[in-house]
Design a protein that fits this description.
Layout: H1 9-33, H2 35-41, H3 49-60, E1 63-68, H4 74-88, E2 93-98, H5 101-118, H6 120-125, E3 126-131, E4 136-140, E5 145-150, E6 162-166, H7 173-180, E7 206-211, H8 219-231, E8 238-243, H9 245-250, H10 256-264, H11 270-276, H12 292-296, E9 299-301, H13 308-311, E10 329-335, E11 349-358, E12 364-374, H14 379-392, E13 397-401, H15 406-413, E14 417-419, E15 424-426, E16 430-431, H16 435-439, E17 448-453, H17 457-472, E18 476-479, H18 482-490, H19 500-521, E19 523-528, E20 531-536, H20 543-563, H21 572-575, E21 583-584
Parallel strand pairs: 1-7, 1-8, 2-5, 2-6, 6-7, 9-18, 10-13, 12-18, 13-17, 16-17
Antiparallel strand pairs: 3-4, 4-5, 10-11, 11-12, 14-15, 15-21, 19-20
Length: about 575
């Protein structure tokens, strides 16, 4: 007979299980309110104070935006949040998106290679994972999962409770609104919601955006302003903050001496630093000639065309210089500067190759397929590079500033020139738009292909205004930014096996194009009579702008000839170019 005051074994087991579950519920509730403590106690991860604050705000906010200086470890923090949320909230579905799929994969790689190696508890939580180009996911035993999705129209079928967009400024706004945000359909549905007394505890889905700052004319700035407006509302759970490089120095994530060294470099860009490290949005100046919006929308060219010394690094035939298309004009332009960059002299020689393709409406669309900069060259060296590229890229015209030191480069081009690199002797070239300069060439029959540009006040006024309209009318196409280019380059056979320095050679045209955009929107101008005078801000450059301006000006001159009536007389030397044979020295 069992005593009345003694429990059965089953009752004891039930009581024990109930106490355990009550303890689990208590600790789960505690850790859900204190995710930074869960990171320390369960995952063994130590956090800086600012990281703990951000983690808590990610956990409690429905809309979260973190504008971070480079090097603050926002990808690492995203990965940690994903792990904590997946463990503490069973059945959570998380989608990580970015413009660059590899960048989104880094979030999962942080979990599988960093956190899992240091936490046995996390290993026990994860059932399966894969981090690859075609499939990237982490599946937890409690039903939660984390997946990488592509920020494009192809990712429409995904569903999630939490959407994380890394470097969101690089993602198209239309993709965010019509694709990514549509992932957030039904919220997480734990079983306790089936009980009437808990139906009011339905969770909201979350949107998390991470990036550095960018230009005020970009849509991301308007998004940030909207978050700021909702941040002050008690009825909305919005959060936004920007943490500049100073906090990285304070927390030991960045060296103060390293910052001082970078700022002391002659090519230091205050604008780029303010955006990438200072968490400051950069605004186009009121009344500026060029805006970021006008110029950046024309960055659509995915493939750069490289000179042979660079393209030989790859075996892919698509990197070779293409033949001229019917009526194509291939223009090489150069803004001449020969001194190395100093604080007192911030010029460099800038070269652009423009593949101008005619349209059905008798206009040319310029495509800046290659660019590079040089400092510290002498006259002969720069002239040889221009002449070599003229042949190598199968160019039809040269646009050259002949005022000042540019005249020395022109005088080199109007003579036969031997190239020790290729072993070729290039024949002399002559001027096609100015008789005075054409007469300086003493070689009979020299092809008239050089446009001698004399940058007078009137010419500069017309050139800059024309260039602005060219961008606004989409008549100038530029290479995509270097972040997108990395994905394009990875598709080229042999790229992955190159050294870092060789990869940089292939990336440089894209980087120089970004620097061109920076120069354009940093130009200042003032009215001088009926013209405007354009000049760069202190410490900035405009050599790339000048080179593109000369190039587009020549394109406009050729377009007028293209649109001229067929019975109009013209100079055959400017309409048909007969190449003299190249001589090879043995």
């Amino acid at each position: 007979m069992i005593p009345l005051n003694k429990k059965t074994e089953q009752e004891v087991a039930n009581d024990k299980a109930e106490k355990i579950m009550n303890g689990v519920a208590t600790w789960c509730s505690f850790y859900r309110s204190n995710p930074h403590r869960f990171a320390r106690d369960y995952l063994g991860v130590s956090l800086k104070l600012f990281q703990a604050i951000l983690l808590c705000m990610m956990n409690t906010s429905n809309y979260f935006m973190y504008l971070a200086a480079r090097g603050q470890g926002k990808t690492w923090l995203i990965a940690l949040f994903c792990v904590i949320r997946s463990i503490l909230f069973p059945g959570t579905k998380i989608c990580v998106a970015s413009k660059n799929r590899n960048q989104a994969n880094e979030v999962l790689e942080k979990i599988t290679t960093d956190f899992m190696e240091k936490s046995d508890n996390l290993k026990l939580e994860i059932e399966d994972y894969s981090v690859g180009q075609n499939k990237a996911f982490i599946l937890f035993k409690n039903g939660s999962w984390i997946k990488v999705v592509t920020a494009s129209d192809s990712g429409r079928s995904a569903r999630a409770n939490i959407l994380i967009t890394d470097e969101f400024r690089m993602v198209d706004l239309n993709v965010i609104n019509t694709v990514l945000r549509k992932f957030l359909t039904a919220p997480r549905t734990p079983k306790y919601l089936n009980k009437k007394e808990y139906k009011h505890l339905v969770e909201r889905n979350k949107e998390i955006y991470m990036s550095s700052c960018w230009f005020k004319s970009h849509w991301s700035f308007e998004k940030a302003k909207a978050y700021c407006a909702n941040l002050v509302s008690d009825a909305k759970k919005y959060f936004i903050c920007g943490l500049p490089y100073q906090i990285s120095i304070k927390e030991g994530l960045l060296s103060k001496e390293q910052v001082a060294d970078e700022m002391s470099e002659s090519d230091f860009s205050e604008m780029a630093w303010d955006m990438e490290m200072g968490c400051l949005w950069y605004g186009d100046k009121d009344g500026s000639l060029f805006s970021y919006e006008d110029t950046s929308k024309n960055r659509i060219l995915k493939r750069s065309v490289y000179p042979s010394n660079v393209s030989k690094l790859l075996s892919d035939k698509t990197t070779k210089i293409p033949d001229l298309k019917p009526q194509e004009q291939r223009i090489i332009s150069a803004d001449v500067a020969l001194l190395a960059s100093k604080k007192q002299n911030n010029d460099a020689a800038s070269i652009f190759i423009n593949s101008a393709i005619p349209t059905g409406s008798q206009k040319y669309i310029g495509n800046m397929i290659y660019t590079e900069n040089h400092e510290g060259l002498n006259t002969d060296e720069l002239a040889l590079i221009i002449r070599r590229y003229y042949e190598m890229f199968k160019c039809t015209y040269i646009a050259l500033d002949v005022k000042g030191i540019g005249l020395g480069v022109y005088d080199c081009l109007i003579k036969d020139m031997y190239d020790p690199l290729t072993g070729e002797t290039y024949v002399a070239l002559s001027c096609c738009n100015d008789k005075v300069y054409a007469d300086r060439c003493k070689v009979p029959g020299a092809p008239k292909v050089i446009w001698a540009i004399q940058a007078t006040a009137q010419f500069n006024n017309d050139m800059y205004l024309s260039l602005r309209e060219g961008f606004r009318q989409n008549k100038i196409n530029l290479l995509i930014n270097e972040f997108e280019a990395e994905e394009v380059l990875k598709e080229i056979r042999g790229y992955g096996s190159l050294s870092s320095s060789d990869k940089m050679q292939l990336q440089l045209p894209y980087i120089h194009t970004t620097l061109l955009i920076n120069e354009l929107i940093n130009l200042e101008y003032e009215a001088k009579g009926v013209n405007i005078k354009v000049h760069e801000k202190s410490g900035m450059r405009k050599d790339r702008v000048s080179s593109v301006g000369y190039n587009y000006w020549v394109q406009c001159q050729l377009e007028m000839k293209l649109r001229a009536p067929k019975n109009t007389s013209f100079d055959p030397s400017q309409g048909i170019i007969m190449r003299q044979p190249r001589l090879r020295k043995y």
